[in-house]
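Replying to the earlier thread about multi-chain prediction with a worked example.

Input:
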Amino acid sequence: MADSTPVPESYYPDLKALQAIDFTLVELNLYLDTHPNDLEALKQFNSAAKKSAELRENFEARYGPLQNFGHSLSAYPWKWKDTPWPWQV
Amino acid sequence: MASSRKWYAPYISPHDPCPPLTPVSYETPVQLYLGFQPKGMEQFSPFDALAHGTLWPGLYTPYTNPYKTKERG
Amino acid sequence: MWYYEKKLQYPVRVGICNPGVAKFLIEQYGGTDGELAAALRYLNQRYTIPSRVIGLLNDIGTEEFAHLEMIATMVYKLTKDATPEQLKEAGLGDHYVDHGKSVYYHNAAGQKYDLGVQSKGDPIADLYEDIAAEEKARSTYQWIINITDDPLINDSLGYLREREIVHSQRFREAVEILKEEQSKKRIF
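Result:
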């Protein structure tokens, strides 16, 4: 069954690289919510956001869209609904 | 900083039905002491931050099962 | 509104096929101090908190949904390949009869999720409630770690416990922000 096709091995380290940079963004985001005037943290946030966008673009080219509702482009046929979902991998 | 694990000894009665399991531990993690986080605290790398659950070593307070720990301070 | 992101916040792994652990984990799914309760509490409180801390409640509330999904992932992986007999042995017989293998919003004792989410509309009361909620969720993670032998599950639980510490820290800072506001003149 097509649904059982496992992801390539590279999926896991690639996913983790994205999770790592996105986690840094979560932490900086919450920090900036209570430290809005920390310019260094703000610069770090913006540069990490650019880095995340790069990783995201590469990840989506390989494994399909990450976000719904038009925040990710899709190849044909519509890829968003494809497995695996996050809880399945 | 001092250990985030503290201990206390409940009163032991000769009439307690079970052998005493003392001392008893409780946790006092770093957010109880830090106050408003100062700017410029040392950071983990993105991968280490993910592994530790925080970007800042100064906010990291790990936990282990106290029933498996002999060290009591 | 919200957008869904097709990835977990943290790489969740389950090492041991032990469906009984799912029974403990479900406490953080549908329990009083669980991730669902946290998400709903913070997002609900956003509307009646001073503007300076709305962003924090919004963002922590959003992150809690990522944690809810991590818990569900562990429960799903532990139960999806279990036979009814194994579920029964694991103490999940009642769950199976009522819900099959679906993940469900109840606590470890099987009580349905009760929307007992606190929101007083008083900023200080609400933020102290939130700090307490983070500390209670932190202790729940500690109790589950104490009762669980799977090092991979405990790795994810250790991560989630540390998130409670960081959230508690930020809520404590939010209280300080509002205390400073009090000493200033009213500016609209």
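Chain A has two helices and no strands.

Feel free to reuse this layout for your own posts.
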